[in-house]
Amino acid sequence: MDLRQFLMCLSLCTAFALSKPTEKKDRVHHEPQLSDKVHDDAQSFDYDHDAFLGAEEAKSFDQLTPEESKERLGMIVDKIDADKDGFVTEGELKSWIKHAQKKYIYDNVENQWQEFDMNQDGLISWDEYRNVTYGTYLDDPDPDDGFNYKQMMVRDERRFKMADKDGDLIATKEEFTAFLHPEEYDYMKDIVVQETMEDIDKNADGFIDLEEYIGDMYSHDGNADEPEWVKTEREQFVEFRDKNRDGKMDKEETKDWILPSDYDHAEAEARHLVYESDQNKDGKLTKEEIVDKYDLFVGSQATDFGEALVRHDEF
């Protein structure tokens, strides 16, 4: 499967995804964990290193001396200080941690960017995306793979327009990221809910009833006996999903299901790092305060951010 076919499948993956009769499809979008380490500063700062740098990037600090680590950390602080006022606030630190947490998303966008930016102007227009993604597929009224490409294109265009904040049908990298990963952006969450409901709401009445909910996850496929997890999901629907007990989920109930308000680990970690490093207790950090606590932030090593900084790349 080439990139265009992959993206077309991704566009409606929830609608067309195939699953085994006893395989559960999970539509819920949870925040990725900051680290799989135990958060116990009395034992080590490994959790904090993973949270601040990203688990993979944290490993590359191992080869650096404390002096090198402090130097690189100082350069990272300059990037975290978004408003360039000489201080790192809890909010700026939270944004950095979230960026590290979701670096795989930005890497995914970066890997696709050149494919779609056909005129190399640093932007992706809707026409560029449509031409690269769909090309001549729209001319085939009966494609072999069974996909309705015109329907998919309409859906993509709607999402593209929502991601495009200024309405010029030209996406910046941030807008293109919102288009490809809408669940990561607050202003895109309505389209995630809308697309989910369109996938599951087979009778198109604007609601998801119990059988539609179960049918999206499980196909009987001639089997009379449901797996135990299906019975549990029926109970979950009645007890927790259908909050007003009317037998179906509306948009708000669907949003609570697929986009739950999880505990904000990035916010908690930012608060922790500020508390541990803020020597004068003014609620914000100077570069000196952060570097003084380099063992908390990065240990005696630095990051792929460190390697990136050597290459003068932007994280």
UniProtKB/TrEMBL annotation:
<dbReference type="InterPro" id="IPR002048">
    <property type="entry name" value="EF_hand_dom"/>
</dbReference>
<feature type="domain" description="EF-hand">
    <location>
        <begin position="188"/>
        <end position="223"/>
    </location>
</feature>
<dbReference type="GO" id="GO:0042470">
    <property type="term" value="C:melanosome"/>
</dbReference>
<feature type="signal peptide">
    <location>
        <begin position="1"/>
        <end position="19"/>
    </location>
</feature>
<keyword id="KW-0106">Calcium</keyword>
<dbReference type="InterPro" id="IPR011992">
    <property type="entry name" value="EF-hand-dom_pair"/>
</dbReference>
<dbReference type="Pfam" id="PF13202">
    <property type="entry name" value="EF-hand_5"/>
</dbReference>
<feature type="domain" description="EF-hand">
    <location>
        <begin position="68"/>
        <end position="103"/>
    </location>
</feature>
<keyword id="KW-0964">Secreted</keyword>
<keyword id="KW-0732">Signal</keyword>
<dbReference type="GO" id="GO:0005509">
    <property type="term" value="F:calcium ion binding"/>
</dbReference>
<comment type="function">
    <text>Involved in regulation of vitamin K-dependent carboxylation of multiple N-terminal glutamate residues. Seems to inhibit gamma-carboxylase GGCX. Binds 7 calcium ions with a low affinity.</text>
</comment>
<keyword id="KW-0472">Membrane</keyword>
<keyword id="KW-0333">Golgi apparatus</keyword>
<dbReference type="Pfam" id="PF13833">
    <property type="entry name" value="EF-hand_8"/>
</dbReference>
<dbReference type="GO" id="GO:0005789">
    <property type="term" value="C:endoplasmic reticulum membrane"/>
</dbReference>
<keyword id="KW-0677">Repeat</keyword>
<keyword id="KW-0479">Metal-binding</keyword>
<dbReference type="GO" id="GO:0005576">
    <property type="term" value="C:extracellular region"/>
</dbReference>
<comment type="similarity">
    <text>Belongs to the CREC family.</text>
</comment>
<feature type="domain" description="EF-hand">
    <location>
        <begin position="265"/>
        <end position="300"/>
    </location>
</feature>
<dbReference type="GO" id="GO:0033018">
    <property type="term" value="C:sarcoplasmic reticulum lumen"/>
</dbReference>
<dbReference type="GO" id="GO:0005794">
    <property type="term" value="C:Golgi apparatus"/>
</dbReference>
<feature type="domain" description="EF-hand">
    <location>
        <begin position="151"/>
        <end position="186"/>
    </location>
</feature>
<dbReference type="InterPro" id="IPR018247">
    <property type="entry name" value="EF_Hand_1_Ca_BS"/>
</dbReference>
<feature type="domain" description="EF-hand">
    <location>
        <begin position="104"/>
        <end position="139"/>
    </location>
</feature>
<protein>
    <recommendedName>
        <fullName>Calumenin</fullName>
    </recommendedName>
</protein>
<keyword id="KW-0703">Sarcoplasmic reticulum</keyword>
<dbReference type="Pfam" id="PF13499">
    <property type="entry name" value="EF-hand_7"/>
</dbReference>
<keyword id="KW-0256">Endoplasmic reticulum</keyword>
